[in-house]
């Protein structure tokens, strides 16, 4: 059985060390044959760095590493290219000076490898340009430029907008070298999490092609279901494949439904224990900074439809939670609609899987309630038993525990979306299967909980209102009658003064 390449981003080490490898070289061949300047956005720990290193080894002509892979008989291995490799990983970039020092160090490493020397007083952009031009002259062939995590200095300062803008302006000047050096470049490839508009970061580089949502490159990073059933068949023998799919599958970039490689490798290494591996490997608390800016109705995250313009722009001055969630991997594409006649492209987004749903909603719940979130067995048992009295008591306890200062000097207690968000986050953080803003032919159900053979249909009102009347009038239960043995209708009215449940009524069908 081959070894697991956990944390290994070096193609040579994987191939020479007999590690498990999912062949992506067919897409690598397509990319380097048909594109000159390309950009790929993917969430963290999705395999971007390994793919970039694969390209590095192709261009340097290491044919022996590719035996048995898709590209082996297609590429002209007699032609080698000088490769300039820039990675922005490995630093905190807390200041512009730290960023300058980091890139000068990286450029110096490239100089040593290529046998080229910059002048000691060169600025980073001048040194970069000199490196490209002199590599071209030295090797008498066009240069390949590979840039990994191009946006990290900006993203590391996203909670400090002024510093983020300084970093962005510095990077804009640095990347302009690519435009000015076009005559010397065979191929340039940049990876990152976010995609900034060309005007803000790639000024003038109009031929940079974004392959992030190009269908034939949809699987360029990540594992497919077929990969698990073939490449990882021995490693996953005896594992619950349906539950693996529920927990870790679901990412989509207009190709197949994908798994994050880090999740699968850690799951296998940890003897099939289901945990939030990808989530725990990063720090998404920048999302809290976004939530502080304005209230969001969290259930609406399950039913977001956006166009190209929102997926293709990321601006420090005007951050949108939906864009940040999508580009960082907390939302993904559920479906895509295109109307070429009118130039309409629409993407329906979703939370990709159970791991992200549980983890994201625990984060949201901690922000909304100031309480440490975890799975609550009480609410799960109440719903398994159909015990509505216990369910009501659990919900009341949840809101009663929210500190008073959460409501001071704001009108959050008047906001229906706040109560819906708290309840949604609480239920999702407990691992329950819920459907938010559930669409029927009569309207939208606020929240549906599906557990065993029971479906719970919930409608909320703040202050006055008749949520139960709306459930019945709109015949919301009809959608679930064929598939569930028992259906509960639950109407919840919240009292904005008491900041808790004023009334909860229910009926079972």
Q: What does it look like?
A:
With 509 residues, the protein is an alpha/beta fold. The protein folds into three domains: 11-217, Rossmann fold; 223-280, no CATH class; 360-508, Trna Endonuclease, Chain: A, domain 1. Helix content is 39%, strand content 19%. The chain is built from 20 helices and 16 strands. It has helices at 11-16, 25-34, 48-59, 96-114, 124-139, 152-155, 161-180, 198-201, 225-230, 241-248, 261-269, 277-280, 286-293, 308-311, 321-327, 354-369, 377-385, 388-400, 416-429, 467-473; strands at residues 37-41, 83-87, 143-148, 185-192, 209-210, 223-224, 249-251, 258-259, 304-307, 332-339, 344-350, 433-439, 444-451, 454-462, 486-495, 500-508. The chain has a five-stranded parallel β-sheet, with helices on both faces. Strand 7 and strand 8 form a beta hairpin. The chain is elongated and about 80 Å long.
List keywords for this structure.
5-stranded parallel β-sheet; 3 domains; elongated; 509 residues; 16 strands; single chain; alpha/beta; Trna Endonuclease, Chain: A, domain 1; 19% strand; 5-stranded mixed β-sheet; Rossmann fold
List the helices and strands and how they pair.
Elements: H1 11-16, H2 25-34, E1 37-41, H3 48-59, E2 83-87, H4 96-114, H5 124-139, E3 143-148, H6 152-155, H7 161-180, E4 185-192, H8 198-201, E5 209-210, E6 223-224, H9 225-230, H10 241-248, E7 249-251, E8 258-259, H11 261-269, H12 277-280, H13 286-293, E9 304-307, H14 308-311, H15 321-327, E10 332-339, E11 344-350, H16 354-369, H17 377-385, H18 388-400, H19 416-429, E12 433-439, E13 444-451, E14 454-462, H20 467-473, E15 486-495, E16 500-508
Parallel strand pairs: 1-4, 1-5, 2-3, 3-4, 14-15
Antiparallel strand pairs: 6-8, 7-8, 9-11, 10-11, 12-13, 13-14, 15-16
Helix pairs in contact: 4-5, 5-7, 16-19, 17-18
